[in-house]
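Let us practice reading a record.
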Amino acid sequence: MRQFFFSAIAVLLLNGSLAAQPLPAGKLRYLRPAGDGWTNECVFTTAKRDNGWSIASVTERGQLRLTLETSYGPKDALATSVLTLRNADKESVAIVAVKDGVARVQLPEQPLKKLEVPPGVIVTSAPDWTDTLLLCARYDHAAAGKQEFSALWYHPEQPVQLLKLSVERQGYDTIQRDGKDVKLARFTIQLRGNSRYAAWATMDGTMVRLIPLPAKAKRSGLILEGFEKSGAVDLVSP
């Protein structure tokens, strides 16, 4: 199956102008509450490619590990995605390959499913936070208001879904970090199944804090590594 995936990359990635990479190249690590401290939840790696960009996420919870690797080509067109789900000794792999705007999704022991996907479609799964990360990064502050983005949700053990996700800026908050003021935009995000979150991001689009709504505890959700001793810990949902 992996051989098919890498063959698909070779066939489907086309030469052309660079895609609209929403985040700078590099790694971002997010933490979840654990007792009185924080522990690793997920790591994102964004990279620039010759004709586009890629994003990979690794989410870990106990024996469960979900890896989602997605690449985009010219004009922000989705090219390929591979999802690996490991739970103890069990491993499942699902693959997406796109040609002419049509995603071919192959789940384990399932017939091939085809869906039309628009440029820039967000690819996500569960447990995975690529959707919230990219919603914050792609929000257009000049346009403001509620903004919708298409998302392709897939999982080795569940049906594929093509979704509409939304993000809306609610205001701004200023926190202290290392003795300096940091201005954050505050958002409300709606994901699959109408689940709602409050999110805060830097003005360049990097998500700093994420809290599920309605908030049930002060220490919940995710925080960007490096902000766990900042005022981001004390942020409350709108």
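A brief commentary: The radius of gyration is 18 Å.
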